[in-house]
Every structure is written in C-alpha cells, then in structure tokens.
C-alpha cells in the first residue's frame, strides 16, 4: 500500500522524510514516529556492479550480520579441530558446504529485513522501496523500483545513505572482481581468493575464508616499515592442567613489514592481526600494487552457455598482475578477487549540491555540526554518510535516536562521538574503545601515557594447546589524571563482548586503580584486566637489556 501523501500539515506531506534505511535512518525514523511525527523512509540501493541487491536494513543487516555469520562458520571449523581433545570422535577433514552456509545466511538476512518492515509498520513509519533525490530544499524526488516517480515535501529531511565499496580504477577490476556486497551471491565457493586491501573488512574476510578451508592471499600495498617492542612472556592466568608445547609468541614471528590496518587503528594491534594471519597460513603479497585483472580463459555465463567476461563462474580463473617493490611484474591465478580497498559515501546523484548541502571534497561525505545539521538548516545527516565521525552501527542508532529527540521533544542531548567501541571480526577477534597508543602519545605526550599489557590464555584453549601468545590486552592510561583509562584494546575470542562493559566503565571515568581492585571472574578470560602489572616501558627496557 502506498504511503499517504497530500498536504496534511501545511505545505508538507511529511514532518520528516528519511533517505536511507540503514541503522541510522531506521533509528531516527522510528524514534520520530514514536514522538507522533508523520515520517516516511526511503530505502533503495542500486544493485552492485555484479548485480547483487540489498534488503532493507543497510550495512547492519546486509553486511555486519553476514560478517558475524561467516566468522562463526570459520570459528566452528576451528572448534571442530579442538573438539577431538574434548573427546568428540570426528572424522578428519570434515568438508564445508558453501551453498548451505549461503542459503542459511541469505534466509536470515531476508527474515531480519522482513522483521524491520513489520517493525516500521507497527511504530507508524511509512516505508517505500525507492530512491530519494533532493530537487528543492524541502522536496524529494522519489523513484520506485519500477521507475514510478513522484515528488514529496517534508519539513525536515534526514540523509542516512551510508557508504558502499569502492572500485579501483584499474583494468579488469570492475569486470572481474567482487566486493563484500557480492560475496554471498556467488553460486559456488570463492575457491582460491585474492583479497585486495588492508582494511578491517579485508582482513576479516581473508581470515574467515581461510578458516573455511580456502587458500587466501592478501595483497598489501607498499607502506613504511614499523618497529615493535617485544613483550615479556605472560604469567599464566589459570593454573595449567597440562603444560602445552609452547609455540612461538606471535610477536616474534617474522613480522610483516607493515600493519594491516591503517584506518586509525592501533599500530601494534594491527601488527598482531598481521601476525595472526601469517601464523595461520594466509599468504601475503607485500608491497605489491595491483596492475590488472583478466581471465585466463573465456568464462561461461552463469545461466549456462554464452561466453562473457563479466560474470563470475565456476569455470575459468582470474589472472592477476602485480608490480613488486623491485619493479617487476608478477602474475598469479586465483578463482576470486575480492576488493576491500575502500568505501565511498553514497552522496552522488542525490541532488545535494542543488539544494546547498555541503560535502567534504576529500571524502564526499556530508559536513555536519554537533547537532548533525548540514549546511541547510532543515536537512540533517546521520550515520556513516557524515564526514569526520566514527562509523559503527551502534553509533548510527544512538545518533539517530538522539536527533529525533532533539528535533521533536525538549531534549538537547548531543551524541558523544568519543569512546565508540569497534570490533574487527577476524577469527582472533579484535575490539577496542577509546584512544590508540599513537593517538594517546600524540595528545598527552609519551611521558604522560602508561600502557599496561599482557597476553592471556583462555582456559578452554589449554586442552587443545592452542597458541599461548595470540590473545592479548592493552590498557592505555593517562598518568597525571589518576591513570584514567584512555583506551582498552583486546584481541581474543569474543573480544567485542568482553569490551562492552569497559565502554560503560570508561564513560564513568574508569581508572587503572579501579581495574586493580576489581575482583576477577574465575574462570574467565576477562579477569586478565584485574591483574595487569607489566607496562610497555618495562617490556621495552627488558628488550633493550636483552639486546645488550
Ligand atoms: C565491512 C564493514 C564492517 C563493519 N563492521 C562494523 C562492526 O563490526 N561494528 C559496527 O558497529 N559497525 C560496523 N560497520 C559500520 C556499520 O555497518 C555502519 O556504520 C552502519 O551500518 C552505518 O549505518 P548507516 O545507516 O549510516 O548506513 P548504511 O547502513 O550504509 O545504510 C544506508 C542505506 O541507505 C540506502 N540508500 C543509499 N542511497 C540511497 C538513496 N539515494 N535513496 C534511498 N536509499 C538510499 C541504502 O540502501 C542503505 O540501506 C561496518 C561496516 C562495513 C562496511
């Protein structure tokens, strides 16, 4: 049923029109409708280059949840290996069924999207599967999937159009590569995969696909070399039932020449992820630039038959040419090339310039003030389309909810964009909140910053004797301010879940002394935070002595 239109409130069809039905748009729309406003939300993304479509719910439903499911699939593979030590008599080499996984995930995404539509209806938000474009300051041109167009007026307009994967301008990339939007539309397992890019998304997917038993290579572009101090051997958090054969500490493995994550992530934690991948067996093409991607033979159309160069197929491979740091070209064949090289704001073709909404020239994202207001008074932006703000689902929901309250009830609460928790869903999960070590040092000076750190060994890892030196925590403190905690970084199983409580504690001004007097929960990994005694300075001093 079409949403009602017409001048029900002066010159406007709606009190608020939201363009974009991701986490931010849905939150602001639902909250506003709950505050008795007449709200319309539009959501439609043009299909990806390879034709993949998305359901209502934006990245949160269509990407974040898929990442979580894929991570779980990969972790279960690891658990299968461990299970023998726990007495399960499994046959070796249990195969993984890609199509079963894809079917289950797609079904779940559709169900979640349907639930969202029901929820919108229940709270009284009108929804149209349609593209929105500003044509006048208060007027949006609405284009539905069947091409039907109309113009609707709203008193307030919220842009929540998010971002999507960016294609590199390199020969063969658009024709032959896939992005995270397409991964689960592949009708066959990706096979041997080249992941292009050092983004969190790239590393997650590399680790996950490897965990599913696929050969994976990560292509890392050239970057400066980084040094890393060693950490003292960890004191065991739990009495060991049996002494496992010690494996090499992860930090002492031949370190990659550069951290995998650059996007404002802590450098040492990024390097630990690199090491985790390296130790796991993920290959890396270091300091190589992508030159071109081509097919090794004519590929068959998925529908079966005619040769095409644009469809992924189970037949034929992709030949990737890279330029090495030494200036040589090298070629390697892969089944799939997965692009994770960056994301681009969905602000093009939206008519922003014609109504005067200003965007950053660098990122294309929308410039907003502390009230999420754009350069046009009645037009707001929330979520990852905003320039210069962290971008997470939780933050988009929070910001959208607060925006509606500020607009429609007397609540002036601003969204706090500090201490936003973030998680990277590699098998060895990495979660953090607050400052990186680099940012803390730059802000307060190295002498004012103390970094406590420790490896830890989850108790359940002892039976299968997993690597003792892969789980790690780091707490960054501001010495002159009673060692107030500036940043918490965790690498290990369920790091994101462990982190959540620390986020609340940091909002309350958590100090190192408060961590020390907190009773640890036995048996549990997070108790490591109650017994952090070693600082990075100590480790560095030890390393220096060791080197003398
Ligand atoms: C790979 C990846 C990993 C991430 N990992 C995490 C994580 O671990 N934890 C976390 O909290 N966050 C994570 N995020 C970030 C999180 O997904 C986003 O910050 C959040 O979903 C942003 O929500 P949004 O509403 O701003 O935009 P989106 O979710 O991108 O939604 C935008 C919506 O707008 C629609 N749209 C676009 N243009 C138009 C138009 N002109 N007309 C109509 N509709 C339009 C699109 O269809 C889309 O549904 C990750 C993001 C990515 C991409």
TrEMBL record:
<dbReference type="GO" id="GO:0005739">
    <property type="term" value="C:mitochondrion"/>
</dbReference>
<keyword id="KW-0560">Oxidoreductase</keyword>
<feature type="domain" description="Pyridine nucleotide-disulphide oxidoreductase dimerisation">
    <location>
        <begin position="420"/>
        <end position="528"/>
    </location>
</feature>
<keyword id="KW-0285">Flavoprotein</keyword>
<dbReference type="InterPro" id="IPR023753">
    <property type="entry name" value="FAD/NAD-binding_dom"/>
</dbReference>
<dbReference type="GO" id="GO:0004362">
    <property type="term" value="F:glutathione-disulfide reductase (NADPH) activity"/>
</dbReference>
<dbReference type="InterPro" id="IPR016156">
    <property type="entry name" value="FAD/NAD-linked_Rdtase_dimer_sf"/>
</dbReference>
<dbReference type="GO" id="GO:0006749">
    <property type="term" value="P:glutathione metabolic process"/>
</dbReference>
<dbReference type="GO" id="GO:0050137">
    <property type="term" value="F:NADPH peroxidase activity"/>
</dbReference>
<dbReference type="GO" id="GO:0045454">
    <property type="term" value="P:cell redox homeostasis"/>
</dbReference>
<comment type="similarity">
    <text>Belongs to the class-I pyridine nucleotide-disulfide oxidoreductase family.</text>
</comment>
<dbReference type="InterPro" id="IPR036188">
    <property type="entry name" value="FAD/NAD-bd_sf"/>
</dbReference>
<feature type="region of interest" description="Disordered">
    <location>
        <begin position="239"/>
        <end position="258"/>
    </location>
</feature>
<dbReference type="GO" id="GO:0034599">
    <property type="term" value="P:cellular response to oxidative stress"/>
</dbReference>
<keyword id="KW-0676">Redox-active center</keyword>
<keyword id="KW-1015">Disulfide bond</keyword>
<dbReference type="Pfam" id="PF07992">
    <property type="entry name" value="Pyr_redox_2"/>
</dbReference>
<keyword id="KW-0274">FAD</keyword>
<keyword id="KW-0712">Selenocysteine</keyword>
<comment type="function">
    <text>Reduces disulfideprotein thioredoxin (Trx) to its dithiol-containing form. Homodimeric flavoprotein involved in the regulation of cellular redox reactions, growth and differentiation. Contains a selenocysteine residue at the C-terminal active site that is essential for catalysis. Also has reductase activity on hydrogen peroxide (H2O2).</text>
</comment>
<feature type="domain" description="FAD/NAD(P)-binding">
    <location>
        <begin position="14"/>
        <end position="226"/>
    </location>
</feature>
<dbReference type="Pfam" id="PF02852">
    <property type="entry name" value="Pyr_redox_dim"/>
</dbReference>
<dbReference type="GO" id="GO:0004791">
    <property type="term" value="F:thioredoxin-disulfide reductase (NADPH) activity"/>
</dbReference>
<dbReference type="InterPro" id="IPR004099">
    <property type="entry name" value="Pyr_nucl-diS_OxRdtase_dimer"/>
</dbReference>
<protein>
    <recommendedName>
        <fullName>Thioredoxin reductase 1, cytoplasmic</fullName>
        <ecNumber>1.11.1.2</ecNumber>
        <ecNumber>1.8.1.9</ecNumber>
    </recommendedName>
</protein>
<dbReference type="InterPro" id="IPR046952">
    <property type="entry name" value="GSHR/TRXR-like"/>
</dbReference>
<dbReference type="GO" id="GO:0050660">
    <property type="term" value="F:flavin adenine dinucleotide binding"/>
</dbReference>
<feature type="domain" description="FAD/NAD(P)-binding">
    <location>
        <begin position="261"/>
        <end position="394"/>
    </location>
</feature>
<dbReference type="GO" id="GO:0005829">
    <property type="term" value="C:cytosol"/>
</dbReference>
């Amino acid at each position: 049923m079409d949403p009602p239109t017409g001048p029900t409130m002066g010159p406007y069809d709606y009190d608020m029109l939201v363009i974009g039905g991701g986490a931010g748009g849905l939150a602001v729309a639902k909250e506003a409708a709950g505050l008795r406003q007449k709200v319309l939300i539009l959501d439609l993304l043009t299909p990806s280059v390879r034709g993949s479509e998305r359901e209502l719910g934006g990245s949160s439903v269509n990407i974040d949840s898929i990442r979580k499911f894929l991570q779980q699939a990969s972790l279960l593979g690891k658990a299968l290996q461990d299970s023998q030590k726990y007495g399960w008599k499994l046959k070796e080499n249990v195969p993984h069924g890609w199509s079963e996984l894809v079917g289950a995930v797609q079904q779940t995404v559709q169900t979640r999207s349907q639930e969202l539509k029901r929820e919108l209806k229940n709270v009284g938000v009108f929804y149209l599967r349609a593209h929105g474009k500003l044509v006048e300051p208060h007027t949006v041109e609405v284009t539905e999937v069947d091409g039907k167009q109309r113009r609707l007026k709203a008193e307030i307009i919220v842009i929540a159009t998010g971002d999507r994967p960016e294609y590199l301008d390199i020969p063969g990339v658009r024709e032959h590569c896939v992005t995270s939007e397409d991964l689960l539309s592949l009708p066959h397992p990706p096979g041997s995969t080249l992941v292009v890019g050092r983004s969190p998304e790239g590393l997650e997917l590399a680790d996950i696909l490897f965990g599913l038993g696929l050969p994976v290579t990560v292509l890392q572009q050239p970057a400066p070399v980084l040094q890393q101090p060693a950490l003292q051997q960890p004191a065991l958090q739990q009495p060991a039932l049996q002494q496992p054969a010690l494996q090499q500490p992860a930090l002492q493995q031949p370190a990659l020449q550069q951290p995998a994550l650059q996007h404002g992530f802590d450098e040492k934690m990024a390097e630990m992820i690199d090491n985790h991948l390296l130790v796991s067996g993920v290959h890396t093409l270091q300091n190589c630039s992508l030159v071109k991607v081509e097919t090794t033979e004519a590929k068959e159309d998925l529908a079966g038959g005619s040769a095409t160069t644009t469809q992924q197929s189970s037949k034929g491979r992709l030949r990737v040419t890279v330029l090495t740091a030494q200036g040589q070209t090298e070629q390697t064949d892969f089944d799939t090339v997965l692009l994770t090289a960056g994301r681009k704001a969905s602000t093009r073709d939206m008519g922003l310039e014609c109504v005067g909404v200003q965007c950053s020239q660098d990122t294309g994202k929308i410039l907003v003030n502390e009230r999420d207001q754009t350069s046009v008074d009645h037009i707001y932006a929330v979520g990852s389309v905003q320039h210069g703000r962290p971008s997470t689902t939780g933050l988009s929901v929070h910001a959208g909810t607060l925006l509606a309250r500020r607009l429609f009830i007397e609540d002036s609460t601003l969204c706090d964009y500090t201490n936003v928790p973030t998680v990277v869903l590699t098998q060895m999960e990495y979660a953090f909140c607050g400052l990186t070590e680099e940012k803390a040092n730059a802000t307060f000076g190295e002498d004012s910053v103390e970094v406590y750190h420790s490896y830890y060994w989850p108790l359940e890892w002892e039976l299968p004797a997993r690597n003792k030196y892969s789980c790690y925590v780091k707490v960054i403190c501001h010495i002159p301010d009673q060692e107030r905690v500036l940043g918490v970084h965790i690498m290990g199983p369920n790091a994101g879940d462990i982190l959540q409580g620390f986020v609340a504690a940091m909002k309350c001004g958590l100090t190192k002394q408060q961590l020390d007097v907190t009773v640890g929960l036995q048996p549990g990994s997070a108790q490591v935070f109650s017994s952090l005694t070693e600082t990075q300075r100590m480790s560095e001093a030890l390393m220096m002595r060791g080197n003398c």
